[in-house]
Amino acid sequence: MIEIDLAWLLALPLLFALGWLTAKIDRRQDGVSVRDQLFQELSQGVAALVSGERRLAMGQLLSVVRSAPEQINLQIALGRLLREEGQPDRAIEAHLAVLGRSDLLEVDREAALLELARDYQAAGIIDRAMESYQMLEPTAMALPGMAGQLDLLQRQRRWQEALVVLDRLLETAPETMSEADRTRYQGIRFHLLMELERVSEARGMLPAHPSLTFSPETTEEGPYVCASCGYMGRQHAWQCPGCFSWDSMRAVSRS
Q: For the chain, what is the largest distance between any 2 Cα atoms, rounded to a whole number of angstroms?
């Protein structure tokens, strides 16, 4: 599976904005180019973002957003960057400002609502995060909306509700879902069934899964490290307590 650096995903709206600035902003009479100034700031922001200088990138983005508030994608990207920098409260403000616009296109509204849901989740405002994810189900963002609900419900150990959402998610995208995602979601479904003590159904899905014959006495001595997030714990766990991914804990070999 190809891994994509998150910085490049954040940079995409900025690259679109670069083209927009080139086409839309005229020169001032005094010879100073507003377009060139914003183009330079935005270019520096993209360069800082992809090189890992996220705080510098955020400063450049803030400057450009103030000068070109009509750039919706740029504002959404800025809010996302604020959240990634550990400032979910400011991200919430940024995305609420986008959603408050009267001239907002539906596609932008859905994108901003998804980011707002993730902001709420990062801020620990779980009820609003869940409500925002649920609002996305009738939209083109239904799949990430259901994926967000599934993540929240697993973190809260609400296994039955998580299973209902997961089955709805699998039914919604039988053809558009990648094989890797389908395999991952089937693995989650297996574990949800195990947590609900529906062992026979789980066995029918993955009959060779080691959890079916698991015994604490036969596990290797810890520590265990999550291959997804690096969380380290002394005891074996099928679900990582750090990132809540399944089957990611590995025993650290002792030499």
A: 79
* Residue 235 φ/ψ, nearest 5 degrees: -110, 155
- Determine the average pLDDT of the residues in 230-248: 92
pTM for this structure?
Answer: 0.76
pLDDT exceeds 70 at position 211: yes
pLDDT in tens, 57-94: 667 676 666 666 667 887 888 888 889 889 899 899 98
CB 194 within 8 A of CB 211: yes
Q: Across residues 161-166, what is the average pLDDT?
A: 97
pLDDT, tens digit, for every residue of 13-40? Answer: 554 444 444 444 444 444 345 455 655 6
Q: Is it the case that residue 198 has pLDDT exceeding 90?
A: yes
Question: Three-state SS string across the chain, please?
Answer: CCCCCHHHHHHHHHHHHHHHHHHHCCCCCCCCCHHHHHHHHHHHHHHHHHCCCHHHHHHHHHHHHHHCCCCHHHHHHHHHHHHHCCCHHHHHHHHHHHHCCCCCCHHHHHHHHHHHHHHHHHHCCHHHHHHHHHHCCCCCCHHHHHHHHHHHHHHCCCHHHHHHHHHHHHHHCCCCCCHHHHHHHHHHHHHHHHHCCCHHHHHHHCCCCHHHHCCHHHCCCCCEEECCCCCEECCCCCECCCCCCECCEEECCCC
- Output the CA torsion 126→129→130→132 (10° steps): 160
pLDDT at res. 37: 60
- CB atoms under 10 Å from CB of 52, counted, come to 10
CB 112 within 8 A of CB 136: no
Whole-angstrom distance, CA of residue 138 vs CA of residue 53: 37
